[in-house]
Write a structure and sequence with these properties.
Layout lengths: L4 E8 L6 H13 L4 E6 L14 H12 L5 E3 L2 H4 L6 H12 L3 E8 H8 L4 H7 L1 E5 L6 H7 L2 H8 L4 E4 L8 H9 L10 H10 L4
Parallel strand pairs: 1-2, 1-4, 2-3, 4-5, 5-6
Helix pairs in contact: 4-6
The chain binds adenosine-5'-triphosphate and magnesium ion.
Length: 207
């Protein structure tokens, strides 16, 4: 009997991808003994209607560039190629179809994003379909996360382990800060891979 494959899934806007994302994915891979981590750049995220994000193809390309040298990182086009708004549950179900039943999915997010997910479409079904991995972000209070969860979901965190909290090296990097730095002409060196900094510069993104 073949053992169950452990697939990490990291969704995000990746506008642009940065070392916070990459370190988190790598930590999840090693701490949770994942076979691979699949990065899933979003199409049009329903919760980010307020700001125009960069063209999905460019965000996808940046993720591909940033993950190219890591053998256990892959990039997926599922959300980019699906028309309409992107919902996490639809993505998870689509991946389950592609990878089959012999795969456990570990959906990796920042601890802050977990709260967002649980306010999205069908949080209970997300927990049926996969493990949620909450990577602690600098300054994030886990008790706050627990208290903010609805009681029936908090129970799953404590009891059946469907929500896994992962401690990652502190990194207060965010795409918002990187865009702001580029806009105001400050350095983004050591916050994003070199190839990403060059790609942003070459194409004049975020100016
Ligand atoms: P923005 O500032 O535009 O919201 P972001 O830096 O939060 O961008 P996203 O693409 O929104 O990046 O995030 C994708 C996923 O990565 C989310 O689950 C988010 O919580 C997580 N994440 C983002 N930055 C970090 C970081 N520095 N450390 C750990 N996880 C992070
Ligand atoms: Mg974010």
């Amino acid at each position: 009997m073949r053992r169950v494959r452990r697939l990490g899934v990291m969704g995000g806007t990746f506008d642009p991808i940065h070392y916070g994302h990459l370190v988190t994915a790598e930590e999840a891979w090693s701490q949770l003994h994942l076979d691979e981590v699949l990065f899933v750049p979003s199409g049009r995220p329903p919760h980010k209607k307020d700001r125009e994000s960069l063209d999905p193809e460019y965000r996808y390309l940046m993720v591909a560039i940033a993950t190219a040298e890591n053998r256990h990182f892959q990039v997926s086009r599922v959300e980019i190629d699906r028309p309409g708004l992107s919902y996490t549950i639809d993505t998870i179900e689509e991946l389950k179809k592609v990878y089959g039943t012999k795969t456990d999915i570990f959906f990796i997010t920042g601890a802050d994003a977990i709260l967002e997910i649980l306010t999205w479409k069908e949080p209970e079904r997300i927990l049926e379909e996969c493990y949620l991995v909450a990577a602690t972000r600098p300054g994030y209070d886990l008790d706050k996360l627990k208290k903010a969860l609805p009681p029936r979901i908090r129970k799953r965190m404590d009891k059946d382990g469907r929500i896994i909290v992962l401690e990652i090296p502190s990194l207060s990097i965010s795409s918002t800060d990187i865009r702001e730095r580029v806009r105001t002409g400050r350095s983004i060196k050591y916050l994003v891979p070199e190839g990403i900094a060059e790609f942003i510069e070459k194409n004049g993104f975020y100016r």
